[in-house]
Amino acid sequence: MKCIEVAVLFVLVQAAIPHNAAFARLVNTTSYPTTVAPDLIHPEETTGPYPHSTPVLFSNVSGSLDDQGICQCSVYLPDTTFPVQKVEQLEIIAQTLSQKFESELSKVTLYMKTVELYEQKIQNLTIKVEHMEKNSVSYTEMDFQLLKMEIIEMEKLITQLKLTLGGSNVIVEQLYVEIKNLTLIVNDMESMDTNNILAIRRQIVYLQNQLKACEGNSNKTIEVPYFPPGSCTHGGLLNVSQPYNIQLNWRGFSYKYGAWGRDYSPLTPEKDLYWVAPLNLDARYLEYYRLYNSYDDLLLYKNPREYRVALGDGSGTIVYKNFMYFNYYGSREIAKLDLNTNTIVLRKALPNAAYGNRFSYASVTWQDMDLSVDENGLWVIYSTEASTGNIVISKLNETSLDVLNTWQTKQYKPSVSSAFIICGVLYATRTVNTRKEEIFYAYDTKTGQESKISIIMDKMLETVQSINYSPGDQRLYIYNDGYLIRHDLTFKPIL
Q: Pairing state of beta strands 71-72 and 237-240?
């Protein structure tokens, strides 16, 4: 009975060997002794095929009994040797591939999480861009820069993902296309700044910085150099103050042309004598003028002294040492009028001077001769045919009206809106627009040197008819479309 059980056990073992390589290594021997009854081993069972299996699992062998009556026999495996070494190599390769697969799977999982994160970022960016498209005035240059930085960061990640995956991935390709589209939209929006919003914002930022700098400096004590009236110890004109609107000339708004100012006398610089000389409605004829003994009288139209002079030509009038000087009507003569008696005490022709509205200032007629006063005395600004309309400057003797010296400039007089002289330096102005004039040209009679400068001067109305400088208070007196305007001046120190 024991031999029968052993034989059955081996049959089962032999049937399992081809399907279990690990067990095959354990039973791969030449023979296996066992106890089995010889009469139980039948040839048809050992040599013939099984009803349901093609391979031959056993060979026909003879058994024997030992001294103790125990059955002894041998069982042989088939001739084909099982490839154990190849199976071991396959197991090693399978294990290695499994490890690599797990590693790559973890990477892909990480990349997919990152892709999901950046998908959300793209959605947020899309919302931002849509908001900016609908509200074109609410964005700034910084908004564009931040958007671009985020898009560039995502583009780098997607490029890295494409290289890492080494193949086509629908999600990654879609992300890459969306990022490129976002870049194009942002660049297009930035280039379509038709309202110059970014430029305006940059200018606002610049002005804000300037304001902060100005506020920072406002706490510092700034000492403005003081130069006594009548002295020329400074380095020339530096700046012009805002206009002070004193009043409308006493004859009314229709009298747009004329001149006004303050008398200057080196012996009595503190003397207050203000004069106003509007022209008639023809913008040429000087017929009446008024004098005021104080600034308060001028403001209140109080205690005026009004005189009729007749025969004044244009608005180039000036008052110096209680005498009024003007171009005599229809001639190249300069007239000298005593204000105390309202009589003309002297008339003198200015040699070669053009007259009759030949070379007047721009936008101002009949001002061929423009009388001026500075710390050094009486001057006249005019042109000649020989100068082809360029400005000529002559220093006059206020007593005899003789020409003491003459300077030729290269500045065309009809392109200048007005001119004045300070400490022997001619300053010429031109119109910038209806609210601004620019002091753009200077000629120094001491050195004969010309220079281009730029000092902006605000004005109340469009046309400046005359500018007179008073050395007694270092101010400009401007007749501006019938209004009396005053500017304070600032001078440069001598370096």
A: unpaired
